[in-house]
Amino acid sequence: MYKRKFERNDKRDLLLFGYSEHLELPSKQLEPTEIPKPHMRWNPARQEWVTYSDSRKNRTAFPPKEYCPLCPGANLDFPTEIPFKDFEVAIFPNRWASFNSHNQSITLKEVLTKNSNGKCEVVVYSSKHLDTIAQMPLDRIKLLLHAWIDRYEELLKQKDIEYVMPFENRGEECGVTLHHPHGQIYAFPFIPPVIKKEIEAFKKDNFLLKLMNKLENKYYVYQDKNIIAAVPPFARYAYEIWIAPKRQLPGPWAFNDEEKESFAIAMQKVVKAYDSFMGKKCPYIMGLHAAPQINDSNFHFHIEFYPPLRYEDKPKILAGSESMAGVFVMDVLPEETAITLRKHIQ
């Protein structure tokens, strides 16, 4: 696999990953935009950071069908983020980042503030405008996994980054403003609260390994000898699925070749099952939960999928109990939805 580092006209790097070496000359590029300077404010009630990036209100949202900023720009009459005729997987800095290292501090007397250092990157899965994980060839998903691993290994070396999370928001119901298949990578200057709880939980006990027998026999949606996709027995969303290796690994960088193949197959089968169940492209939020350090010995890597559904095609709204108290209320049992989704595995 090849990786090309192309320096854009704003002196930031566009990364191109592929099975073939990318040697194409660039076409016209987008005009440079102002580098974002986000900051964080400490919420004393919830004991957590909130990041503010007012440039995000200017980001591209639902452009006309004929204009897609994630399509190959050399084939169009206007520049895009990727100024070439073709590519396989592309990664570049988000122009409207929520986290971006800088030196312009903001000080407020009423709350503690810090710069929102770190990085936000956009991951474009394909040059094809409608090629989601469900439609891609398996080799493309393996290439995407390779690109994710590259970013984990590179970003975790940086001193101002403590945690890296690739994720995908799919569908307008989940906040998508560009329909071209893509995800994002957030490199945080702290360990996020949810991940911090998972780290503490895995240090006490590997609950995934303890549950593995039950997952394999009662809650599975798909599995092979290396990987399992299952509805967790404690799911907070009706059709929530976790994909995890059957042996404890800190992150995808620790996969052997066979596990990479299994993982790519499982990801595609899960997304296809969601689409089959919904009879359309199913909306979901998907995130990779990996260890904060490459050599961690406690964490058990997994991916979590959250379709925002309460039951069948009824939307799940985070209402009073979930939003105000942090207590999820469920309408269906995980063992029932596991059976339902299992029927849609192809």
Descriptive labels:
alpha+beta; HIT family, subunit A; 2 domains; 346 residues
Q: How do the SSEs run, as a string of H and E? A: EEEEEEEHEEHHEEEHEEEEHH
CATH architecture of the largest domain: 2-Layer Sandwich
Category by helix and strand content = alpha+beta
Largest sheet, strands/sense/barrel: 11 strands, antiparallel
Beta-sheet strand percentage?
15-25%
* CATH secondary-structure class of the largest domain: Alpha Beta
The name of the CATH superfamily of the largest domain reads HIT-like
Note down, in words, how this protein is organized.
The chain has 346 residues and is an alpha+beta fold. It folds into 2 domains: 189 residues, 2-Layer Sandwich (HIT family, subunit A); 148 residues, HIT family, subunit A (2-Layer Sandwich). Helix content is 23%, strand content 23%. The protein is built from 6 helices and 16 strands. An 11-stranded antiparallel sheet has the order 1-2-5-7-9-8-13-14-12-11-10. Strand 1 and strand 2 form a beta hairpin. Helix 1 crosses helix 4. The radius of gyration is 20 Å and the shape is globular. It starts with a strand and ends with a helix. The model has no long low-confidence stretch (mean pLDDT 93).
Topology overview:
Elements: E1 2-7, E2 13-18, E3 39-43, E4 48-52, E5 89-93, E6 113-115, E7 119-124, H1 138-155, E8 163-170, E9 182-188, H2 193-204, H3 207-219, E10 220-223, E11 227-230, E12 241-245, H4 257-278, E13 284-289, E14 302-306, E15 309-311, E16 314-315, H5 320-325, H6 334-342
Antiparallel strand pairs: 1-2, 2-5, 3-4, 3-6, 5-7, 7-9, 8-9, 8-13, 10-11, 11-12, 12-14, 13-14, 15-16
